[in-house]
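Order emerges. As here.
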Amino acid sequence: GDDSPLNPSGNLIVNNIQQLYESKRTEWTPESIVDDILGRKPQKDLTKSPEALIDKIKKLDNLMVITDEAHHVHDEDLQWHKTLMSIHKALPNGIDFWLDFSATPKTQTGTYYPWIIVDYPLAQAIEDRIVKVPLIVHRIDKKDPENVSKDNVIQKYGDWITASLERWKEHYEVYSTVGKKPVLFIMAEKNDYADRIAEAIRKRKDLGFKNPEEEIMVIHVKSKGEGETEIKITEKDLPKLRELARKIDEPDNKVKIIVSNLILREGWDVQNVSIVLGLRPFTSRAQILPEQAVGRGLRLMSGISPDHTQTLEVMGTEAFENFVRELEKEGVGINTTKTPPPLPITIAPEKSRLVYDIEIPHTEFRFSRNYKKIETLDLSKIPSLYSSDKLEEEKKILLKMEFPVTETEVHQVAIDVTSLPSGRELVSYIVREVMKRARLTCEFNNLYPIVERYILEKCFETRIKDIENEKLRKNLNDISIQDAIIDILARVTGEISIETKTEVVKLDSFKLSSIPPFTWRRKHLRCKKTVFNFVAVYNDFEAKFARFLDEADDIERFSALADKFSIDYLSSRGAIRLYYPDFIAVQKIGKKKVFWIIETKGREYEDTDRKDDAIKRWCEDITKQTGQEWKYLKVMQADFEASRNLKNFAELVSERTR
C-alpha cells in the first residue's frame, strides 16, 4: 500500500504477489469526446503515485527476488510466474538473484526441483523438535467404504468420524492441562458431505459442546475447474476463513472442529490442529502433495515446553493413509500432461451411405413390477444371515498408531462406539438402500415394516423385541452387516415383485439412419459398410473388431450401436436394468441374410450371463415374429486376438460355436 517512489538502490519491497499482477493496472476508457480530447482526469490524491508498483520495479537497475511458498512460482500457467518473468525480461540484466523458499520444493507430480541448494527433510525437523510428530492412526478392522453419497456419508464414514471424535476428546483433556485447545480438522470430499458430517457431529450430546453451531465450523470451497489445482473460497466464506486463520489458536476462540473439503495449505498458520481426518481421495490427478495436505497441521503449538512431544494424528480411509505415507518418498514423480483431451466429434448418418442402413425392431419391456407382491413376502423363506452370538460380540473401533518415517508401531487403542443412531434411523437407511439397489419405486412405508420384521425376527436367528435394542443397533451400525442385509433384501424383494413376459412383442422398428446426430468423445474410426460417417467405439478392441467387420467379405453392413439400442434384463440384485450391445451386423449367406447382435468383451463382469440370456431370448422372439433370422454372438478379446487370418464372419462364428 506504500505509494512512495523507489530509490535507485537500497529498496526493500515486502508485498503480496497479487499486488504486482499486470491486471492491477487501472484501465481507462473515455466516457465522452471531451474526455477523449482532454485525457484521463488527474487523481485527487496528489501524494499518491500514478505509477503502478510493477512499473516502478521494472525501472530498477538491479533486483533480488525472494519468494515464499515458491513451489507455485514455476508453474508457467500461473499469474505469479508470468508476473515475475515479465519483470525479468524488462530489467536490463534480468533478475540478478532469485531465492526460493518452500516446505514442498516439488513439482505437482512429486519430483524435487533440481536447483535445490539446501534441503531440510521432515525426518530431521521431527528429530530437532521444530514440528509435531506425525502419527498415522490406522483402522485395523475396516476397509474403505464404497458408493459414498451425500445420503449415506454418515453411515459409510460413521466409525471414522466416531474414532476421530474420541481421539479429539482425549487430546482435549490432555491439552487442557497446559491451557491449549486442540482442533480436529475433517477433510470431506464434497461440500454436501461436509454439511452432513457437521450436522451429525452437532447432534451428538457426548462432546459437551455448549454452542455446536459456533464450535463446529464448516468452510465451503469451490474449485476452479477439472484438472486445476488452485482453489477458491466462496465470497461468503472468505471473511470467515480469514478470521478463523487469524484467531483460531487464541484461547477464547470457540472453534474446536473444522469440516471442509479444504486442505491445510498455504495461508493456514494454524498451530492447534492436532488431529486430521481425511475422508477424501487424493490422487496424482488432483495435483496435491502429501505435505500440502497435512503440513500445516505439523506446526508446533506455542507455549508448550519442549519436554512434551506434540503429535499430529492423521487418520482416515486407507487411500488417505497411503497418500500420507508418501511424505518420506523423495524424487519419485509421475509424468502428467496438460494437453487437453481431443475435441468431440459429431457422428451422424450420411445420405450417401443409406445402402448400409439397418432396421432394428423395437419391442416392449420383458420385465415389470407388481409391488403388491412384496406384501406376500414369506420371511420364513429368507435365510438368516447371522447367529444370535453376533449380537453378543463387542463392537469396538480398533486403532493402531504408527510413526510413518520408520513405520514403527507406537500404540493401539480400542474405542467404544458410544454414539449410535436410533434403530428406526438405521432401518430407514437400510430400506432406502434396498430400494436404491433393487431400483424399486414402491412406497417407503410399505417396505419399512417388512425390513424391520426381518431384522427383528429372522436376521440373527433369534427374536428381538425392540428395534431400539442397543446390541442390535451396534450391529446395524456396522457397514458390513448393513450391506449383507441390504443385499439379500434387495434381491428377494426385487425378484418377488417382478412380472416376466414369456415373449416380448415387437411394437415397431427404427432405422439407424433415423438417429439424430450425436456428440462422441471417445475413439472413432472411418469404415465403409456403415450408414454413419464414423464408427463410435469405446476401446482399441472394439476398433479392431469394427475393422474386421468392415473387411469381412460376408458382412453386408454393420454399425456400432453406442447407446442407441438396449433391452431390459433382471440383474442378480433383483433390479431391472438396461443392456446396451456393442454391434449389429448383417451377414449374407447365399440368398439368406442373418441379423447379428454382437457383444465384444475384454473380460466377464457381474451379470454378463444374465445379459447374454436376455438378448438371446430377444433374438428368438424377434425371429419368430418377423421371419427374419436374428442371432447373438459374444466375442471375447483373448479368443479373437488368438484367431489368425479370419477371412469372413462365418469363420469367426464357426470358431466361437465349436
User: Anything to note?
Assistant: Residues 223-232, 330-341 have pLDDT under 50 and may be disordered.
